[in-house]
Design a protein that fits this description.
alpha/beta, 8 helices, two-stranded antiparallel sheet, seven-stranded parallel beta sheet
């Protein structure tokens, strides 16, 4: 049984508005996807989350997004590839400042929301994200998280970056192995027991039940726990405990 990394979306607030229970989630996860200001997050939040993550030995990842604060990064946008690459590099660079100030560094990159889903099938947008990653870290290749079989992971591997396949215990899957769009009924799995069961099955068996009831393969090295889900911290703890009980080794990916 292969080890599994647990990642969560953190720092998703702005000013006085907060959405994620960063401290509680950082006691459970092994990797922290920190919002870099384009879909959520601001400089003070980014600094605080980096300090918390570094203090607990949790790896820091840049969660890059379309420039869409109003839509929480969940609206697809037709951003020219060159511009998108610059914006991805900009977000990584901003987070790197706070990660280094906390005694850590940005260790990987994960697109957020609409950008994540767009790079599953859009070769130009996938290539732009990879170009932005390489621009931000020319001396050291940063791993890239994405959906198994996505064009993003293909582009990352072709560029010499480490592709890290990722799964979602709280999201419904299509028979093709893609995520059911959030606008459709049942796209988000809200039953805590079901989320825990799916997480263990993904990690232990490499499989999940799709929305149509079929069994599909999910070969993932990292498992995402959405930080904006109501009760996310408690649910994340249940997932971690269930994985431990099932004999699944939880550790950050190499």
């Amino acid at each position: 049984m292969l080890p599994i990394d647990l990642n969560a979306d953190l720092g998703e607030g702005f000013g006085r508005w907060t959405l994620t229970d960063d401290e509680a989630l950082l006691s459970v996860v092994t990797s922290a996807n920190v919002a870099c200001g384009f879909h959520a997050g601001d400089p003070s939040i980014m600094r605080r989350v980096c300090e918390l993550a570094a203090g607990r030995g949790v790896r820091i990842g840049a969660q890059v997004s379309y420039r869409d604060l109003a839509g929480f990064g969940r609206r697809s946008m037709d951003v020219p590839p060159g511009e998108l690459a610059d914006e991805v590099a900009y977000q990584i660079g901003a987070l790197e400042v706070f990660a280094r100030a906390a005694g850590s560094r940005v260790s990987y990159v994960k697109p957020h929301g609409a950008l994540y889903n767009r790079t599953v099938y859009d070769a130009d947008q996938a290539a732009a994200v990879v170009a932005g990653v390489r621009l931000a870290a020319p001396a050291g290749a940063l791993p890239v998280l994405g959906l198994p079989g996505s064009l993003l992971l293909t582009a990352a591997e072709e560029a010499g970056l480490t592709p890290v396949p990722e799964a979602f215990a709280d999201r419904a899957y299509t028979p093709a192995g893609t995520l059911v769009p959030r606008g459709e009924a049942g796209a988000v799995v809200t039953d805590p027991d079901a989320v825990v069961e799916r997480a263990v099955r993904m990690a232990a068996e490499g499989a999940v039940t799709a929305a149509d009831g079929s069994r599909i393969a999910v070969a993932a090295r990292s498992l995402c726990l959405h930080g904006d889900t109501p009760g996310a911290a408690g649910l994340a703890l249940r997932v971690r405990q269930a994985l431990d009980a099932a004999g699944v080794r939880v550790e950050a990916f190499a």
